[in-house]
């Protein structure tokens, strides 16, 4: 089965996550990277920053994962 992403960066809105996303955008344009975290707005911003830093037209779609704990 084909996977949508080759690699997912969890915590992509933090300092280190943004560095990793930018590095991957610059150095591995053939890798399909997904960004994951708690805030969709921050993820979209991180994806735009990584794309701008690399000169790439666009980065992979940002995704969020919500964890719901039972009460």
Percent strand:
15-25%
How many DSSP-defined strands? Answer: 3
Unreliable stretches covering 5 or more consecutive residues: none
How far the N terminus sits from the C terminus, by CA atoms, comes to 36 Å
Main sheet strand line-up: 1-2-3
Helix/sheet category: alpha/beta
Largest sheet: 3 strands, parallel
Radius of gyration: 12 Å
The overall pLDDT average reads 77
Shape type: globular
The helix count comes to: 2
Portion of residues in helices?
Answer: 25-40%
Give the ordered list of helices and strands: EHEHE
Structure, briefly:
Helices cover 39% and strands 17% of the residues. The chain has 71 residues and is an alpha/beta fold.
What would you note in describing this structure?
With 71 residues, the protein is α/β, with parallel strands linked by helices. The radius of gyration is 12 Å and the shape is globular.
Which helices and strands occur, and which strands form pairs?
Elements: E1 7-10, H1 15-27, E2 33-37, H2 40-54, E3 62-64
Parallel strand pairs: 1-2, 2-3
Helix pairs in contact: 1-2
Keywords:
71 residues; alpha/beta; three-stranded parallel β-sheet; 2 helices; 17% strand; globular
């Amino acid at each position: 089965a084909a996977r949508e992403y080759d690699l997912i960066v969890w915590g992509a809105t933090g300092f280190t996550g943004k560095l990793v996303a930018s590095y991957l955008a610059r150095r591995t344009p053939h890798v399909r990277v997904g960004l994951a975290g708690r805030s969709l707005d921050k993820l979209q911003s991180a994806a735009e920053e990584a794309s701008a830093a690399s000169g790439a037209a666009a980065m992979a779609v940002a995704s969020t994962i919500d964890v719901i704990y039972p009460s």
